[in-house]
Amino acid sequence: MVVRPILSFSNDEPESVGVQLIGGSLWTPEFGDQQSSQNIRNLSTTMYKAEIPAGESQSFNYNLKTELHPADLVLKLVAIVSDHAGAPYTLSAFDGPVSIVEAPISIFDPQIIFLYLILAAAFAGTSYFIYNTWLTTFFPQSKKRGGKGGERAKTSLRGTKKVDPADQVSVPADGPAVTSGSKAYDESWIPSHHIQRPEAKRIRSGTPSGVKTKSKAG
């Protein structure tokens, strides 16, 4: 927290005086004779080297920066002044109680904005983890239809193998499927008289059987 107290100097001397520097410190307040004042922190020193003419006044800003917790303390400021001959003198510029309070919080503070971003990222990551770990079991996702069916069909067509003509199946109009190389059916459930092929009868060449020939006498 930065505080800029204004210190005013009045020159009542017949000659001009110079303000060389201003410094200070923070002390604990005194509580009677039981507890003495203690130095809490020394403050920065600011150089001025300004000259105040005789009979005139001039004000100076002193930058006071602290990072202490809220408390009631005593502020002591000391100025080093010099006369027209350059001789230095120590002058008490301020000695009184002060209160250190928290700085007002603004939502546009960069630190507050950065903190909000970190908290939002942590909340989003935790929610995503919880959803994928537990909630997905209660809300199963439905399978998509449409486009994947065509892809499966293309994949199945690409995966088909060419069939050897010797292993191709010919299907008659009134009979079971028969292959020209190997059997493509189970014979255990087919009656035996359907499986056996009829044997072709052999006929002798020449005179047909059962036909008698007669010879004529000459």
Total number of beta strands: 11
Using only CA atoms, what is the Rg? Answer: 58 Å
CA-to-CA gap between the ends?
161 Å
Shape: rod-shaped
Task: Indicate the low-confidence ranges by residue numbers.
Answer: 171-181, 209-213
What is the arithmetic mean of pLDDT?
Answer: 75
Overall SS class: alpha+beta
Estimated helix fraction: 10-25%
Please indicate the percent range of residues in DSSP E strands (runs of 2 or more): 25-35%
Number of helices: 3
In sequence order, what are the helices and strands, one letter per element? EEEEEEEEEHHEEH
Largest sheet: 5 strands, antiparallel
Would you mind describing this structure in some detail?
The protein has 218 residues and is an alpha+beta fold. It is 21% helix and 30% strand. The chain has helices at residues 110-138, 147-159, 192-195, and strands at 2-3, 6-10, 17-27, 39-42, 46-52, 57-61, 64-65, 71-82, 88-100, 169-170, 178-179. The longest helix is centred in the middle third of the chain and has 29 residues, at 110-138. Mean pLDDT is 75; it is low at 171-181 and 209-213.
Brief synopsis:
This protein is of the alpha+beta class. The chain has helices at residues 110-138, 147-159, 192-195, and strands at residues 2-3, 6-10, 17-27, 39-42, 46-52, 57-61, 64-65, 71-82, 88-100, 169-170, 178-179.
